[in-house]
Design goal:
- The chain has 419 residues and is α/β, with parallel strands linked by helices.
- It is 60% helix and 7% strand.
- It contains 23 helices and six strands.
- A hairpin with an 8-residue loop joins strand 2 and strand 3.
- Helix 1 runs antiparallel to helix 18, helix 14 packs across helix 15 and helix 19 packs across helix 23.
- The longest helix is centred in the middle third of the chain and has 23 residues.
- The model has no long low-confidence stretch (mean pLDDT 91).
Length: 419
């Protein structure tokens, strides 16, 4: 059985052991029910980090505009799987309520944590997210979002290029690497505008783009200058100065419709990259992350209400965590994508495919569409090849460790019943 199936079985046995405890059984049933629900994705960050703005951008409509935590169901689309977004209270180090932080950690399956610049950023919440025995064994549920990426590039229309360079540099920083899967830059206000732009706003931008450069550029030097006109002030509140600069530049360059401008804004504001990361690290592995949440929930029950009948469950939980290869795959997926782990040219893409980076089902992993015997033969062939890589003295120790992770994935496919 795989990790989600083993977790389901463990929680079902825990229900029997705690049948006389209404509080424990309600808690465990809630975690079992979450297996059939969309992934819960919390958007966290300090005051002013743009949490609600990013929630609106991901939802495609203005759904988060108040101080209270809210949930919003995001239906599946061509570019984004189904999600439950959680807009959370600020998690500033000094003002955060410890109980609130703990509830976020228990309620969410995955976290987008927003920050300005990684240098000297407050990492206390990310440490809290991983401050649990199960979480420490599986630090695979967080992405860092540089949510004011336009400011990292001085508000220039190419600001995301500078922000991506910052993200690349900090992806390999030791402490952040242990707390999150990846770092993704996003210009939040421009991304929200791209998802929610109206025809009237497009017409206003088109009119601005028609203004001679010599007249428009001085207005775009500062927010105060641009906002002197009421219509421009409304546009500024929705797009931000970076978004206005970018949108007018795109229209001047030939973008001639609301839909085309929206698509360009999403790409150039970094939202498309963030949605790809959410899919790659979270929704494609939703059942694994829900199993992680359920195991944390089970551990809470076992610690809060210890009893002799539950002692075997404690042992099995520890054994399950020690052997959960699905978590190792997620860490290796992030390591290969961010450059924390390296493989020789030609092997990286194959390794990513075999550990589920391009799809979690066996045909996607093996690159073969066919009946079970053909899939099993492909799995055995990949297993033999990657065993050779794992034992190859020419490769470095880190490369051989990466190869061993691929070996485990191949072994699991080769031995799986009904492949």
């Amino acid at each position: 059985m795989n990790l989600p199936e083993l977790t389901w079985s463990l929680l079902s046995r825990a229900l029997d052991a705690y049948a006389d405890s209404p509080r424990a059984t309600n808690w465990l049933r809630g975690h079992l029910a979450r297996f059939t629900e969309p992934l819960r994705l919390a958007v966290t960050g300090p005051h002013g980090s743009g949490r609600s703005t990013l929630v609106n951008a991901l939802a495609g409509e203005v759904v988060a505009n108040g101080p209270e935590p809210t949930r919003h169901h995001v239906p599946a689309s061509r570019s984004q799987p189904e999600l439950t977004l959680i807009d959370t209270p600020p998690v500033d180090a000094e003002g955060a309520d410890p109980g609130s932080l703990e509830r976020i950690c228990l309620e969410a399956d995955a976290v987008l944590h927003l920050m300005g610049h990684p240098h000297n950023a407050d990492l206390s919440f990310l440490r809290t997210v991983q401050d649990h025995p199960v979480a420490r064994a599986a630090p695979v549920n967080a992405l860092v979002v540089l949510s004011r990426a336009d400011e990292l590039g001085g508000g220039r229309v190419d600001a995301l290029i500078s922000a991506r360079q910052v993200a690349r540099r900090y992806r390999r920083e030791t402490e952040l690497a242990g707390l999150c899967q990846d770092i993704v830059p996003v210009a939040g206000l421009a991304a929200q505008a791209g998802r929610t732009i109206t025809e009237a706003e497009f017409e206003t931008i088109a009119a601005l783009a028609a203004v001679p450069k010599a007249e428009l550029e001085p207005l775009l030097l500062s927010a105060d200058r641009f906002a002197a006109d009421e219509a421009r002030a409304a546009l500024l509140s929705r797009f931000g100065l970076f978004g206005v600069r970018l949108a007018t530049t795109l229209v001047r360059g030939g973008v001639d419709s609301q839909a085309a401008l929206a698509a360009q804004l999403l790409q150039r504001a970094g939202l498309s990259e963030l949605r790809d990361a959410i899919t790659r690290y979270f929704t494609d592995r939703a059942r694994v992350l829900k199993a992680r949440s359920a195991l944390i929930g089970l551990d809470v029950v076992l610690r809060m209400e210890p009893r002799p009948a539950a002692a075997p469950l404690v042992t099995e939980l520890e054994r399950l965590l020690a052997g959960a290869h699905e978590f190792a795959e997620l860490r290796m997926l992030a390591a290969l994508n961010t450059g924390r782990a390296r493989l020789p040219d030609g092997l990286k893409d194959e390794a990513l495919r075999l550990i589920g980076g391009y799809g979690d089902d066996p045909p996607s992993r093996l690159g073969v569409a066919g009946p079970e015997p053909q899939l099993r033969q492909a799995a055995l062939g990949a297993l033999r090849l990657w065993q050779e890589y794992a034992e190859n003295p020419v490769l470095g120790a880190a490369e051989r460790r990466a190869a061993l992770t691929v070996v485990r994935s191949c072994e699991a496919m080769a031995m799986a019943p009904g492949l």
